[in-house]
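Deviation from plan, reported transparently: flavin-adenine dinucleotide complex.
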Amino acid sequence: MNKCVAIIGAGIAGLTAAQKLYENGFNDITIYEALDRIGGRIHTIPFDNGVLELGAQWLHGQHGNPLYHLAKERDLISNPNIDFGIEGTGIFCTDSGDLLNNTDINKVIEFLNRIKDQISDHSLETNQLMSAQQVFRDNFEKYIKTQECPPLDTDLLWSLFNWYIKFEVIDNSCNDLNDISLLSYTQYDECDGIDLINLKNGYKTIIDSLVNEFPKNVINLRHCVKRIEICNKNNKQNMDTFFGFILPKNKINIIKTLGFGTINKIYLYFDKPFWSSDDNGFQFVWTKHSNHSLPDWVYDITGFDLVRGQPNVLVGWIGGNGAIQMEKVPNCQMIGDICFRVLKQFLPNMTIERPSKVICSKWWSNEYVCGAYSNRSLNYQKLNLDIESLSEPIVCETKYSNLSNRYIDYPLILFGGEATDRQFYSTTHGAMRSGLREAQRLIEFYNKLNVLDISKL
Ligand SMILES: Cc1cc2nc3c(=O)[nH]c(=O)nc-3n(C[C@H](O)[C@H](O)[C@H](O)COP(=O)(O)OP(=O)(O)OC[C@H]3O[C@@H](n4cnc5c(N)ncnc54)[C@H](O)[C@@H]3O)c2cc1C
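Because the crystal trials were delayed, the predicted structure below was used instead.
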């Protein structure tokens, strides 16, 4: 039987699968990639003697993270004990220009992080069908009435709560934390070890090192697959969709209910940095949502962090609907000018000049990606669906021997990508695992076929 494999997408899942198959003697592989570059949601660009990451930023965790092991083996990572990522920390300030007391802020954030940990390890008694936002809210309501809560004004406490929720919206890549199930926290596993690990010279180095292991002509850039059809008279045709046949109901339900939202990054380059190298960043606690004459999307920016290896650059993270609205602004410089006004409002006592260069990611408008990464929505949890059904292959009964009338289920279409990984969805290592899983499925199938062929003799 011809071991011919077509892979759609040159993201980390597709490339890992290709590398593993190639290593196992599959020589007839073709990768179709719609974009004019490889990497998918890993997108490193050169900038000012260094790099910027428009997509994936860090490797998350060490133990049980196959991508970390691969990167370490190939000497691609920075020493995580001295060079690790930073996000959502630094100076907390309000839209009235007040700098907040970090001890108080940390207490509140520690409390909310504790709630998050308790959701994750199932130690919080709660209705499992409540949204994540509701659980945070209910517990925060109780907390602010206790002695444990720092003596801050109640409105300010809720503003801080809203900052935390926006941070979670970004972390979960969703539109609204009210749509997110507790499963997002209980099913998702963190790999132990340091959580925000930097690549020495950017994420692209991982992609390049994978691609170096198989022939270059395997990858066809600017080749968008429009439809997959099965040439089998028994299959019902479904000509309106990407799949030219009827998908199993379970798969359709999962595809329809899994959440997939957008997050974006806004990089601002300042000729003269207005911060000190000891700072970590500036977090925006909005206390009023009106009379700012600013577009609505700015309220979904959690703040700006310093950027490793880029002393003149700050990065802003934006999620929710704001991440989509921001993409509709005609150009990045206009986005930068609006962020400049926001920074001046939050930090009136600092001398801030207009950023001279602005670079933004636009994941929602990328027609082959349409967002950032998957989450486990409340609707998905309510339907009690099993993610394994998403990665089950479409099989086709095929005669495996011309000498005898023997048939076998042939895995015709396989499903990979970050969303299909049960515990590590949303991450690059989840995507990598999915590529390995599907490659292994094919390897095992052909191994079995060889045994059957031999036993027939
Ligand atoms: C802003 C942002 C920050 C992130 N931060 C992190 C992080 O810090 N750490 C982490 O672990 N993860 C992070 N992620 C998530 C991570 O990038 C993804 O989970 C992972 O890269 C997904 O890999 P994939 O191979 O499953 O999919 P993709 O990378 O999306 O690859 C799929 C490929 O298929 C192509 N394609 C789609 N349709 C077609 C078609 N019809 N024909 C041909 N080609 C097609 C696409 O162009 C794409 O190249 C982040 C993502 C974003 C967007």
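The longest helix spans residues 428-456. We consider this an acceptable substitute for the interim report.
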